[in-house]
Amino acid sequence: MSTKRAGRRMLVLLLGLCLIAGMLSGCGSGGVKLDPKNPTTVRIWNYYTGAIANAFDDMVSEFNTTVGAERGIIVESSSLGSIPELENAVKASINKEVGSETLPSIFASYADVALLAEKAELLVNLDNYLTKEDQDEYIASFIDEGRIGLKGELRIFPIAKSTEMFMLNKTDWAPFANECGFTLDDLATTKGLVEVAKRYYEWTDAQTPDVANDGKAFYGRDSIANMMILRAKEYGHPMFIVDGVNATLDLDRETMKSIWDNYYVSFISGYYAAYGRYRSDDVKIGRSLAYIGSTSSASYFPTEIVADDGSTHNVEVAVLPIPYVEGKEKHLIQQGAGMVVTKTNDKEEYASVEFLKWFTNTQNNIVFSSASAYIPVKKEAANYDNIKKQLEKNEQTMSPIADETLRAALVEMSESTLYANKPFDGGVEARDVLDESLAKWATTDREAVVALIESGTSHADAVAQFANDEHFDAWLAELEAQLTAALA
User: Fold this and answer.
1) DSSP reduced 3-state for 336
2) Alpha-carbon 454 to chain mean position
3) In 373-458, which residue ranges form alpha helices assigned H by DSSP?
4) What is the pLDDT of residues 390-437, one digit of tens each?
5) Rounded distance, CA 414 to CA 396, Å?
6) DSSP string across 81-128
7) Measured on CA atoms in the order 420, 424, 427, 428, is the torsion positive or negative?
8) Which candidate, 197, 108, 94, 184, places its Cα nearest to that of 146?
9) CA distance 453 to 461
10) Are strands 417-419 and 331-333 parallel, antiparallel or unpaired?
11) Nearest by Cα to 160 from 294, 360, 391
């Protein structure tokens, strides 16, 4: 065989191998060509509101007028108002309910709802569009969370994540802490938090000696479900043991009792509280000093407190790690919806992924994160020094609260284990149970304790009527029954 013929055969072989490799690795373009004169429209459903919605819309506008215009992609984004509203719309579309809309090209989704779409075979396999090298640029746990495919395929594209932090009204904390001898270090553990909250209740009660038992709550908790899931994981007994799309319960009594004692008993005692829709609302009206909430909610922490008498005063915030269980490994909730791409046609799917790639490139993801207090998803971007350098280059600044929240969250992420509950059938319903069950018992029984105190029962005796093993076992039995029904 001549050298020339051998060379031609080798070239054909190499081209064939490249073609096969492209099909297997799934570059995704598959020869798709977009036309700037006849652009492909990508529709997105999200749940963003307020500053986060503004930040996302600004990014969409920038894409449409730059890269989108050059490549022939137009992105149309719609906020459905809230996570429940978005999830209800998605579920209605999946089930083809009367009056429901066709699913958009992309929708924001947590894993449990995305699993419903995956089981209906409606989601694009993102492994066909992101090479291993592409995926390695992202924080590994963010990619792993998106592998909800029934065979482990990547179905959720991480675009921005969040975790939880402890947010404190540092201004009004100071006089209490100085007088009672506390420091911020006393808030590092769950046990320390209870001790501080109890003392704060007693200290504020003493401010009005002529009125008994009118102490104020120190702390509140957004997402009771997150708190329970995290504590159970730290105790080595995750509540849901997931196998494929099925889950079984592990409601270890000691673990659940620790959750009950820390939250429920403190709540009915008046040390913890929940008044408004979100715990930042309670801080704003001076009914508590601190709360645990999502990093993405940082922009809602008040800079001004409005007291019951109508007076106002400015406050500063301290962003701290969430208290951990002493002696246990520190875990952080990994949360924040990703984006799923629905099966439509080659052009629309390709255009959808191109937008998501653009959105999560380091520069753009930092811009969005700095405006929203979400955490960037790429390793290079999720670095505080890199964030500051990029913003200086862009001549942009972060709000003080967003700056402090991102800095503190990135430090905690490096020192803790990120944890996201795997999705399973009934997961949405099970999470609803966790969010409502303990909170309902705590709120109802707190009202009963207050009524007993007003009728002349001592604070200690009123609390003791509910903070006992018999009452705990009744709650645990009800919780188990409700979770079992959700999983069924």
Assistant:
1) coil
2) 39
3) 384-394, 400-415, 427-454
4) 999 988 888 888 889 999 999 999 999 999 988 999 998 999 999 999
5) 26
6) SSHHHHHHHHHHHHTT-TTPPPP-SEEEE-HHHHHHHHHTT-B--GGG
7) positive
8) 108
9) 9
10) parallel
11) 360
Joined tokens for residue 426: 């009934």
Beta strands 338-341; 106-109: pairing state? antiparallel
Give CA–CA dist 469/297, Å, rounded: 36
For 323-373, write each residue's pLDDT tens digit.
999 888 889 999 989 999 999 999 999 999 999 999 999 999 999 988 877
- Confidence band for 1, pLDDT divided at 50, 70 and 90: very low
pTM for the model stands at 0.86
Of 259-263, 301-305, 315-319, the least confident: 301-305
Backbone CA torsion sign across 386, 333, 109, 54: negative
DSSP string, 173-197: HHHHHHHHT--GGGGSBHHHHHHHH
CB 46 within 8 A of CB 79: yes
Residue 161 · residue 377 · CB < 8 Å: yes
With beta carbons less than 8 A apart as the criterion, state whether 314 and 303 touch. yes
Alpha carbon distances (Å) from 482 to 61, 436, 474: 45, 11, 12
Q: Which of 395, 443, 425 is nearest to 487 (CA)?
A: 425
- The label of the residue with tokens 């004692």 reads 261
